[in-house]
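pls ignore typos typing on phone
guanosine-5',3'-tetraphosphate + seq
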Amino acid sequence: MESENEEAADADGTSARSLRAEVERRRTFAIISHPDAGKTTLTEKLLLFGGAVREAGSVRGRRSDKHAKSDWLELEKQRGISVSSSVMHFDYRGFRVNILDTPGHKDFSEDTYRTLTAADSAVMLIDGAKGVENQTRKLFEVCRMRGIPIFTFVNKMDRFGRDPLDLMSEIEEVLGIDAVPVNWPVGEGKDFRGVYDRLGDRLIMFSGGNHGRTLLDENIIEGGLGSDAFNEALGIHAGELTDALELLDGAGAEFDLERVRAGELTPMFFGSALTNFGVSPLLERFLEMAPCPTARESDKGMVEPDSKDFSGFVFKIQANMDKDHRDRIAFVRVCSGRFMAGKSTRHVRTNKPIRLANSTLLMGRDREEVSEAFPGDVVGLFDPGVFGIGDTLNDKGDFNYPGIPSFSPECFARVEVAAVGKRKSLEKGIDQLVQEGAVQLFREPGGGSATLILGAIGQLQFDVFQHRLASEYGVEPGLSPLDYKLARWPQADFDTEIFRFSERVRVYEDREGRAVLLAKSEWDLKRVEEKHPELKLAETADPLRLATSGA
Ligand code: G4P
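k done
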């Protein structure tokens, strides 16, 4: 699809050039990490540096009052978990920065996986004492699947942690990506002095103090390695820094922006979000290196962000964000053109015109009315129940984005049959909640049987599902746990009969009618794979890949 970057003004008076400028100044990313690595803290500090908040703690609160603020769902309050996620934005040095926030609890990681499809890059946050943890690894894999650039921030350098070289080789070995430190720590724990900025040949010294609630002036020392100013600032650490840098220069990967943008090389930063240290060097280099929104694949070819027509896709649907209104908000990532509130576009799946009314820019839990938005932005659209996860909106209704992949659930349960009078409400409730992506649904092949199987990443997802069925649809079906542990989508056509032999691996259909194998263990799947290598079992069902492979 052609980009229309001539200067001619369109009907709305926006020249294509200003659309291009809006695209180029946008940076849309998500932070991925294992719980407790400091994602909330880093997000707050980025907002602080970006001027979106004046004092850290004012957006989401410190842990003690986190729960009080996130009251959109009773369950969230009862359990003290964060189920919801949002989007935050701020302007910084000419850039529009969009941070796609994700829920912290691992049981809701499917939500995070989906949100990553709307991000153009990711910041991978690692606890300096713990290294690459489980959840980080899974989220990293999702980023890699999309080929987006990943920036690494090693946090909590104000505490004693692991050797930085060790952390670097762990990232390279465990994640299989080259790492290039953009800065390097000087000292650690109580003796943490700051970082050496390798690209700028300068020292950024840590001054501690005020517990990071407000900004501090950075103490930057120029002069370069070996200079008197450096030696004085480094003190006893001068020798160890020189040694580490020699090692990095000799054996480490070289900085290469193209490889960073291709997701093959991760720039590494060190710091301490709690004390604000290293946050602004991260933000500044990130804004320089991270890509602006680029062309996105559709079933009719690539769509350039500066194409004149508006397009976007729904990556998340959140119900009951505002308890008083019982509403549903569809989160739409703008991919091309200019979003204008009140204008009409098309909802491609239903081929119906849709007015972009009641649109908001999300900011934490607050909503701002939005009149226009550009590629990279996320708008919240009031959803009267028409939107589904992965739906495309575009002005001409003539192409589809690939949709959101389905990720393998890790828990499964069968829905108990409801009393006759309740069946309609149950079906409606399940249909709506599955469309929202609250859980995944599987049926017997052919859809003949009434057996409904639900899949989720974690038990809490089922709890939320049941809670919502009861409060919104007045039905309380039992869920019987099943001992399946994973789902795999065959990438080739196959005869469902051949799997009849095993009770441990069964064939079902997912919501889109694709065949899917539910298995009790990796071992069972391995046996199937050995016997039927032609099936090419995939951990995720990628709608575009399936569509083009004809499966
Ligand atoms: P999460 O969203 O990734 O789950 O992590 P969160 O920011 O909530 O941080 C988890 C804990 O780590 C918090 O401590 C937080 O203060 C601490 N933390 C975050 N960044 C740093 C850092 O750079 N250095 C140090 N030393 N600690 C850091 P907590 O005691 O669990 O909660 P709180 O009472 O401090 O809020």
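The longest strand covers residues 311-319. Confidence is low (pLDDT under 50) at residues 1-9, 58-72, 544-551. more later
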